[in-house]
Amino acid sequence: MKRSTTWLVGIVAILIILIGGYGIFHKSPAKTITSKQTSSSNTNSNLEVNNSVLITKTSSALGYYLAEPNGDALYTYDGDTTGVTNVTGSLLASWPAYQDTGATTGLPTSVGTIKRTDNGELQYTYNGLPLYTFVADSSGQVTGNGVSNFTIARPESTSQTSSATHSSVDNSTPSSDNSASGY
Predict the structure, then answer these.
(1) For residue 125, what is the enclosing H or E element?
(2) No. of H helices and E strands in the chain?
């Protein structure tokens, strides 16, 4: 009886060590699916975007928003529709299109491209809406939210319509309290 108990304890100890070691050295990859926080029960990981084109950042003033991998905030334009950009000419000078950098493999379905009619370049989209940067943003500052009908791009769930990306957010104070999900 004592011998079988010793074997049982030994086997359980080995299993615990193996399972613990596996958990330490084999962390699961970050999520590539996006969602928008709809209740207080959602966790931060539900709002992360993880790919080579977009990252999720947070600030105390804005909450979660999308950015380029270099940290520049991304915006959508209220005058755009799914798959169509209406930002051209002098407006494009202040709000450059987020151009396709060639990273088109392994992206979630929420990230795509459109071909611009003004210059033929490919522009990244999020849930079908074209993405832009703002030339006045610098050093992690997000100053373009609500300017000239541009809204900070936010991660959202695929169950919500693209109009949710255009939700208004009061951003009267630019934020430098930014943190990013690493990708």
Answers:
(1) strand 122-126
(2) 2, 8
Summarised one tens digit per residue, pLDDT across range 29-41 is: 333 333 333 333 3
Closest to 114 in 3D by CA, of 147, 143, 80: 80
How do residues 99-136 score in pLDDT, each as one tens digit? Answer: 987 766 667 788 889 999 999 999 999 999 999 999 99
Helix (H, G, I), strand (E, B) or coil at 47: helix
Question: What are the residues whose beta carbons fall under 8 Å from the beta carbon of 132, sequence distance 6 or more?
Answer: 74, 75, 76, 77, 87, 95, 96, 97, 98, 150
Answer for the pair 155, 47: CB distance below 8 angstroms, yes or no: yes
Helix H or strand E segment including 56: strand 55-59
